[in-house]
Amino acid sequence: MERTFSVGERTYELLLLKEEIVFLGKEAFFNGNSIRERGVELKADMGKEDGEFVYEHSEKITADLRGLYLLFPNWSPPEDPSHGMIIDCEEGVWLQRWSWLGSNYWVAFVRLVRRIR
């Protein structure tokens, strides 16, 4: 699977949470706080501006990324910072939804998003 994708004039890299966190020698279990901390370390702590941009151009995201959850950990609802924005594709339609960062059930399919251009 490709680790990068381009939408609009921007290019993003996808980071597998568990692989990248283990690579950094950090804890095997992680929650919302550690996801945000690792995102900062990896320069993959994208927020609302990048999340909205990716979502607005989601029709340009290649089919091989369907089934993944693109995580923007620094885009949280003001009333609940324990959630981050997920963009994922369901039945051919890209959706935005808040996801509780304390869960690790979806870790195999989640990718942190890092802008590289």
Task: Describe the protein's architecture and organization.
By secondary structure, the protein is α+β, with helices and mostly antiparallel strands. It has one domain. It is 22% helix and 32% strand. The chain has 3 helices and 6 strands. Strands 1-2-6-3-4-5 form a 6-stranded mixed beta sheet. The radius of gyration is 13 Å and the shape is globular. The model has no long low-confidence stretch (mean pLDDT 82).
Short description:
The protein is α+β, with helices and mostly antiparallel strands and 117 residues long. The chain contains three helices and six strands.
The total count of helices amounts to 3
Secondary structure: number of strands: 6
How much beta, percentage-wise? 25-35%
The run of helices and strands is: EEHHHEEEE
The domain tally reads 1
| CA radius of gyration | 13 Å
